[in-house]
Write a structure and sequence with these properties.
159 residues, 2 domains, elongated
Length: 159
């Protein structure tokens, strides 16, 4: 079944049935709840803070010692899906990189997948910043990432 089939079925429902269906989705699905919460109250700054905390937690968990890059990348992806501004998305992506740089400077050499994740996200954030004319806004932070990795563990000399 594809989206067009679902759309046809939804068109058959009256307003009350649609409200019931959406209410049920809201109660049962965390991502749907978050989407509608943001739709009703689009407080981007609050949402940004929440996802920034998730990224920080991915590198510096409250429990245990293991970083989870997947959770940090998922936070960026989820934030993007909610349709937040490009400005805050670029900020969040750069925060992921900055936190990863801090982590490796705190704990020493990690591994290649770790560095590839940071480098890829860094390039993606620069691409977004360039596309949205945000490079000037983030210039100092971008420069600090480059300076903090001047011994070239992220392969930034090719950028």
């Amino acid at each position: 079944m594809g989206f067009s089939d679902v759309k046809k079925e939804l068109k058959k429902l009256d307003k009350d049935k649609l409200i019931d269906l959406i209410s049920d989705l809201y109660r049962k699905n965390k991502s749907v709840k978050e989407f509608f919460d943001f739709y009703v109250n689009p407080n981007e700054r609050e949402l940004f803070e929440k996802y920034r905390d998730k990224i920080f937690e991915a590198f510096y968990p409250k429990r245990g010692y293991h970083y989870k890059l997947k959770d940090g990348k998922q936070a960026i992806s989820d934030f993007k899906k909610l349709g937040a501004s490009a400005d805050l998305l670029a900020d969040l992506m750069l925060f992921y990189v900055e936190t990863g740089v801090k982590f490796t400077n705190d704990y020493g050499d990690i591994n290649e997948p770790f560095y590839k994740s940071l480098a890829t996200t860094f390039v993606d954030s620069l691409t977004l910043m360039n596309k949205e004319n945000l490079l000037d806004k983030f210039e100092d932070r971008v420069g600090k990432v480059v300076d903090d990795t001047s011994w070239n563990w992220m392969g930034l000399s090719t950028i």
